Amino acid sequence: MPDDTPIDEEPLDGEQLVLGDLINRVLDKGVVISGHVMISVADIDLVALDLRLLLSSVQTAMDRVAEHRKPDHGLARILPATGKR
Amino acid sequence: MALHAYCLLPGSGDPIADAIVGLDDAPVRAIAVDEVSMWVSEAPVLPSKVTVERVQRHDAVVTAALETGATPLPMRYGQRFDSDEEARHYLEERLVELRPLFARVDGMVEMSVVVAPALKKMLRELEPVPTASLDASQRGAGLGYLQQVRDRTEREQRARSAIDAQLDRVSSAVRTFARAEERQAQARGVGVIAHLVAHDDAREYRAAVEAMRPAKDWQFLVSGPRAPYTFCSIGEGGGGGGASGASGTFLAT
């Protein structure tokens, strides 16, 4: 059955968004007792990590759009490759 | 060897199942001081690079602690001790602060909702790339720069207002269950709202969010139940002497 989700409403990759939320929380929240905490995360940019996950989601979605723009997918409609979450 | 710390639990430390393994597949054990125990595993002296897989493994151990029936105070990833003695020393220093935190989260879990724009909305609102850099020697260059700053500020304010409106909707939908709340606006117009809810209400919380119809161009993604990372905070700033107490906004019940 074809997926009728219009491209305007195509969701971002939910799994990656939830994973990004988890990573931000585990790295940025929680009880801090030891003063060593910053040493082990000093070489990672938390914002960049978050952004990388998000941009990766966008790239995946754009790849899917590009796939549907191939001639054998028709010209009239550009639909996402997978179903709506 | 050093110790990687995962979480704190009330109680003097029941035996930990062999199936629970920590970073680098090291067995997890408890270090207890009075009525508080800390779950730790042996770790190399030099900290390993932070990866998504290691963060997930840390969280898996904390989740295993949550599944024992007690609510752990999850520790931020990356906290290490040189020895059992050092870990005990830190616990002894913090017992007074930890007791009210354990009481506050007893029987609770954390749930959160990611509010994200649909793909096209996100692409539509991407920051435009300037076609040419401003030439400071040109007439009106200063005004042009100020207009760019103003436009960017207005776009950011509009994006923040739009996220806040969606977060308000989520907040209203789960008000019955929420004991505390914290909001966070993230990159590219994504917002997250976290709530502390009773363990028994986690299923209803999820159902309440999933029953909501997101506004056009938005999606809501629920995650949890998990340990209350967002709602326990002591010693912020590291090395002792930081701010203490529960974080997040606690709601009237």
Describe it for me?
The complex is a heterodimer of chains A (85) and B (253). Chain A is built from 3 helices and no strands. Chain A has 85 residues and is mainly alpha-helical. By secondary structure, chain B is of the alpha+beta class. Helix content of chain B is 34%, strand content 28%. Chain B is built from 5 helices and 12 strands. Chain B has helices at residues 52-66, 84-105, 119-124, 141-173, 202-210; strands spanning 2-10, 28-33, 36-43, 73-74, 80-81, 108-117, 178-185, 191-198, 218-226, 233-236, 243-245, 249-250. In chain B, a hairpin with a 5-residue loop joins strand 7 and strand 8 (191-198). Residues 237-245 of chain B have low confidence and may be disordered. At the A-B interface, helix 1, helix 2 and helix 3 of A face strand 1, helix 1, strand 4, strand 5 and helix 2 of B.
Tags for this entry?
heterodimer, A: 85 residues, mainly alpha, 3 helices, 49% helix, B: 253 residues, alpha+beta, five-stranded antiparallel β-sheet, 5 helices, 12 strands, 28% strand, globular
Supply the helix-strand structural class of chain B.
alpha+beta
Oligomeric state of shown chains: heterodimer
Structurally, how many domains make up the residues of chain A?
Answer: 1
Listing every helix as H and every strand as E from the N terminus to the C terminus, the arrangement of chain B reads: EEEHEEHEHHEEHEEEE
Instruction: Identify low-pLDDT runs of chain A.
Output: 72-85
Most extensive chain interface and residues per partner: A-B, 42 and 61 residues
Strand count, sense and barrel status of the largest sheet of chain A are: none
Strands of chain B, total number: 12
DSSP strand (E) fraction of chain B?
25-35%
Strand content of chain A: under 5%
Low-confidence stretches of chain B: 237-245
Give the overall pLDDT of chain B as a whole number. Answer: 84
Order of helices and strands of chain A: HHH
Tell me roughly what share of residues is in helical segments of chain B.
Answer: 25-40%
Secondary-structure-based class of chain A equals mainly alpha
Which outline of chain B best applies?
A: globular
> So how many helices of chain A?
3
User: For the residues shown, what is the average pLDDT of chain A?
Assistant: 60
Helix content of chain A: 40-55%
Number of helices, where a helix is a run of at least 4 consecutive DSSP H or I residues of chain B = 5
